[in-house]
């Protein structure tokens, strides 16, 4: 497919529903993990213009910064630490409406106010996390958890 996205306005659900088939086509047939993660981060940034969106990848039992869009970020996160490390340890999606109220939140950027982190699987193993940060409080909800969950499943190919 052509490497450009159709970006739509409208409600969040409609934006995800427009983006997901395009991402599916973009990732289809490409097996390189980094290439696919890079395009997912870029596509999400382009559609939603979030403050920061990207991946941390499991390497030697810690999370190491992977493809992302946004300001420079912390490079390494220990298992269980911060929102990313907690999502990895618990193997669950974490929605944090106010990062100041999350014990152990790692502030890579003071502008970040709320966050959602999802585990990313390949072949049944967690290989990293998808982390999205917003400069607005309470920016993410179950709609994001559902559709971002569909998007990370596209990576497990
Ligand atoms: N806030 C995250 C760290 C990563 S940055 O937000 C890009 C955390 O607490 O895990």
List the helices and strands and how they pair.
Blueprint: H1 12-27, H2 33-48, E1 52-59, E2 62-69, E3 76-78, H3 82-90, E4 94-96, E5 114-122, E6 125-134, H4 142-155
Antiparallel strand pairs: 1-2, 1-6, 2-3, 4-5, 5-6
Helix pairs in contact: 1-2, 1-4
Task: Describe this entry's structure for a reader.
With 157 residues, this protein is an alpha+beta fold. The chain has one domain: GAF domain (Beta-Lactamase, 2-Layer Sandwich). It contains four helices and six strands, in the order ααβββαβββα. It has helices spanning 12-27, 33-48, 82-90, 142-155, and strands spanning 52-59, 62-69, 76-78, 94-96, 114-122, 125-134. Helix 1 (12-27) packs antiparallel against helix 2 (33-48) and helix 1 runs parallel beside helix 4. It is globular, with a radius of gyration of 15 Å. The protein binds methionine sulfoxide. The site of methionine sulfoxide has 14 residues, from helix 3 and strand 6. Methionine sulfoxide (SME) binds at residues 52, 73-74, 77, 82-84, 105-106, 108, 112, 115, 131, 133.
